[in-house]
Design brief:
The complex is a heterodimer. By secondary structure, chain A is mainly β. Chain A is 0% helix and 60% strand. In chain A, a hairpin with a 2-residue loop joins strand 6 and strand 7. Chain B is globular, with a radius of gyration of 13 Å. The chains are: A mainly beta, B mainly beta. At the A-B interface, strand 4, strand 5, strand 9 and strand 10 of A face strand 4 and strand 5 of B.
Amino acid sequence: GENVEQHPSTLSVQEGDSAVIKCTYSDSASNYFPWYKQELGKRPQLIIDIRSNVGEKKDQRIAVTLNKTAKHFSLHITETQPEDSAVYFCAASMTGFQKLVFGTGTRLLVSP
Amino acid sequence: EAQVTQNPRYLITVTGKKLTVTCSQNMNHEYMSWYRQDPGLGLRQIYYSMNVEVTDKGDVPEGYKVSRKEKRNFPLILESPSPNQTSLYFCASSFTVGHEQYFGPGTRLTVT
């Protein structure tokens, strides 16, 4: 089955810096890659997603890139702010295979 | 208001005492899923359901049961809870596995 690895497990940056979180997946048939943000004590919420027919997607300060050949995808956050501090999860799934497999999460800390 | 609800939010129980965690969504979603969240392990899928009366195992189904008799409800049943099932549980729903998953608020379960 699908396996998703996520790195780093923790990431500390200064406010205004960029942050990059990387995930690799094992099954080349995976075609949907969402990213979820979980603030302390809250439920995970989708922040951005990408499908395998697209190489990059942006939404204001957040972007996701996908490299199908290498089977990895990354979350990029620019101009980080303290409110970006949270745990971020990547995930992967494929049409016809109804499971959604999550990475182990990255705790991002943005210091003022 | 579109939402996923779970009850109870907190539960402390003893080994072997059957319990049910309820999950309900009001978005007419076909796909529903249960996850457990443990430190360092991320979100792991327990069971999922693609529609009424259609359920299947996720990655960590041992010790759990589910049912989907109505589209809006997807209860999680622990027939004989054990301490290793102490965890934070999330229910989620979406149109399909390849769409945004809406998470419930979580149920923190402690089994002593």
